[in-house]
Amino acid sequence: MTVLLAAVLLEVASWHGHTYACVETADRILIGHARGDRRIRGYVGQNVSERHDDSRLWITLPGGKRLNFRQDYLTPAFAANSRCEQVVNAAIRRRDAPAPAGLRRREPAQPPTRAEER
């Protein structure tokens, strides 16, 4: 059984041939993109239903039309200082932040050389 959650479509942006949608649920803001022009600007500010997993976001518009987006928090496509852009900027800062000193990245394992194999 699919559970649809109530959300508000906060903002829609088009950038480099993709449509970016930003929805707010009771506890988070979700952002996704899809190829092409989804023509959903008229629904900004309206209540929609959403469902999501770790990589996808499905938005059901008031008329019943369902749209599929790939979640994307690293593309700054929204207006400066908007709530959606603040979420994107926070995700970019987290990605670019140095790892804490106690956590070191594991070096990839190197295949043994011929001398070590003998």
Task: Walk me through what this model shows.
- There is one protein chain.
- A hairpin with a 2-residue loop joins strand 1 and strand 2.
- It is elongated, with a radius of gyration of 20 Å.
- The protein is of the alpha+beta class.
- The chain has a six-stranded antiparallel barrel with strand order 1-2-3-6-5-4.
- It has one domain.
List the helices and strands and how they pair.
Elements: E1 5-15, E2 18-24, E3 29-35, E4 47-52, E5 56-60, E6 66-71, H1 83-96, H2 114-117
Antiparallel strand pairs: 1-2, 1-4, 2-3, 3-6, 4-5, 5-6
Keywords:
single chain; 118 residues; alpha+beta; six-stranded antiparallel β-barrel; 2 helices; 6 strands
> Care to count the β-strands?
6
Order of helices and strands: EEEEEEHH
Please state the average pLDDT score: 88
Percent helix, as a range, is 10-25%
Q: Distance between the terminal alpha carbons, to the nearest Å?
A: 58 Å
- Strand proportion, as a percent range, falls in 35-45%
Structural class: alpha+beta
The structural domain count equals: 1
Short description:
The chain has 118 residues and is α+β, with helices and mostly antiparallel strands. It is built from 2 helices and 6 strands. The protein is elongated, with a radius of gyration of 20 Å.
